[in-house]
C-alpha cells in the first residue's frame, strides 16, 4: 500500500478528533459553556499540529538514510489530513446527529444573544454547513501545519 504511513496517521488524527469532540461535550463546551467554545475549540489545532508533526517526524525516521525533503513532509502531512476527511465527516455526522445535536441549539441561542440575525445564524449552524466548514478547515490546516512542521523536520540542507 503506497500511502500506508499516511493512512495510519489519518486514523490517529481522526481518533484524536473524536476524543476532542467528546471532551468538548462532557465539559459543556457544546451546551452550557457554549460561550467558551470559540476559544477552547481552537485547541483542536494544537492536537492536529501534534499528530501531523509526529507523523512527519516518523516519516523521517522511517527513511533508510534518515533524510526528509521539505516537500516530502508537506505532501505527507497534507495527505494525512486529506485521507482523514471522510473519516472525520462520518464521525462528525454521527456525533452531531446524536449526542452532539445540542450544539446547534446552544450555538444558535448564544449567537442570537450576541445580536446576530436569526436567519443567518440558522443557516450557519446546520449539520451540512458544519461538515463543509470542517472539510475546508481540515485540508487547509493540514497543509499549513505540514508546511511549518516540514520546515523544522527537513534534513535537505
The radius of gyration is 18 Å
Number of domains: 1
Oligomer: single chain
Biggest β-sheet strands, sense, barrel: none
Count the E strands: 0
Count of separate DSSP helical elements: 7
What's the overall average pLDDT, rounded?
94
Shape: elongated
Q: Approximately how much helix is present in the residues?
A: over 70%
State the end-to-end CA separation: 30 Å
Strand content: under 5%
Q: Name the structural class.
A: mainly alpha
Could you list the spans in which at least 5 consecutive residues all have pLDDT below 50? none
What secondary-structure arrangement, pairings included, does this model have?
Layout lengths: L3 H23 L10 H4 L2 H20 L7 H28 L4 H12 L4 H7 L2 H27 L4
List keywords for this structure.
157 residues; mainly alpha; 77% helix
Q: What can you see in these coordinates?
A:
This protein is mainly α and 157 residues long. The chain has one domain. The chain has helices spanning 4-26, 37-40, 43-62, 70-97, 102-113, 118-124, 127-153. Helix 1 packs antiparallel against helix 3, helix 3 packs across helix 7 and helix 4 runs antiparallel to helix 7 (127-153). The model has no long low-confidence stretch (mean pLDDT 94).
Amino acid at each position: 500500500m503506497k500511502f500506508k504511513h499516511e493512512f495510519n496517521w489519518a486514523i490517529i488524527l481522526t481518533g484524536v478528533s473524536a476524543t476532542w469532540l467528546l471532551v468538548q461535550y462532557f465539559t459543556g463546551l457544546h451546551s452550557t459553556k457554549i460561550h467558551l467554545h470559540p476559544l477552547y475549540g481552537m485547541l483542536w489545532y494544537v492536537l492536529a499540529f501534534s499528530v501531523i508533526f509526529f507523523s512527519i517526524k516518523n516519516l523521517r525516521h522511517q527513511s533508510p538514510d534518515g533524510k526528509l525533503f521539505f516537500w516530502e513532509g508537506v505532501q505527507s502531512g497534507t495527505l494525512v489530513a486529506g485521507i482523514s476527511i471522510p473519516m472525520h465527516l462520518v464521525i462528525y455526522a454521527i456525533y452531531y446527529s446524536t449526542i452532539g445535536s445540542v450544539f446547534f441549539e446552544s450555538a444558535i441561542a448564544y449567537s442570537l444573544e450576541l445580536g446576530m440575525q436569526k436567519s443567518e445564524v440558522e443557516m450557519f449552524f446546520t449539520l451540512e454547513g458544519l461538515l463543509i466548514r470542517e472539510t475546508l478547515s481540515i485540508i487547509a490546516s493540514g497543509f499549513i501545519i505540514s508546511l511549518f512542521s516540514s520546515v523544522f523536520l527537513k534534513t535537505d540542507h
